[in-house]
Amino acid sequence: MYQKDFSISTNGQGLTEITNEIDKIVLQSQTEEGLCNVFIKHTSASLLIQENASPEVLEDLNNFFKNLVPETGNYLHSTEGPDDMPAHIKASMIGSSITIPIQEGRVCLGTWQGIYLCEHRDHGGARKIVVTIHGE
């Protein structure tokens, strides 16, 4: 087993591709075959595998979630501002971890797939991610 933490800063709501960071960690682990679990240590951001060829996909997804979970809802929890509870809802819908197969020393993604950190806050700051690798 191999495990590594890293942080990534976000610039407000949107999707940030982290595929290269995950690939580097898999290479460092020297694992040829196995599983890579990626976990985000936050409740107002999430992780997603999505198309990485067309930037319009990312923009459409971000707009979809903004419309689905508006900041103007009648939320009880608003301690950290109007984007706080909507961020928790979006994160609970998308999820806090993903698991990807490792083949031939690399994460096994499709041609147009990338790994994304989904920031749901206007000012999320540095997001902590844990990568755990099991394999040979």
The percent of residues in helical segments reads 25-40%
Taking the alpha carbons of the first and last residues, their distance comes to 9 Å
Number of distinct helices: 3
The average pLDDT score comes to 96
Biggest β-sheet description: 5 strands, antiparallel
Question: How would you describe this protein?
Answer:
With 136 residues, the chain is an alpha+beta fold. Helices cover 26% and strands 38% of the residues. The protein has helices spanning 19-29, 55-68, 84-94, and strands at 2-9, 14-17, 34-40, 45-51, 97-103, 106-107, 113-119, 126-135. It has a 5-stranded antiparallel beta sheet with strand order 1-8-3-5-6, with helices on one face. The chain has a 3-stranded antiparallel beta sheet with strand order 2-7-4, with helices on both faces. The radius of gyration is 16 Å and the shape is elongated.
List the topology elements.
Elements (H helix, E strand, L loop, with lengths): L1 E8 L4 E4 L1 H11 L4 E7 L4 E7 L3 H14 L15 H11 L2 E7 L2 E2 L5 E7 L6 E10 L1
Antiparallel strand pairs: 1-8, 2-7, 3-5, 3-8, 4-7, 5-6
Fill in the keyword field for this structure.
136 residues; alpha+beta; three-stranded antiparallel β-sheet; 8 strands
In short:
The protein is α+β, with helices and mostly antiparallel strands and 136 residues long. The chain is 26% helix and 38% strand.
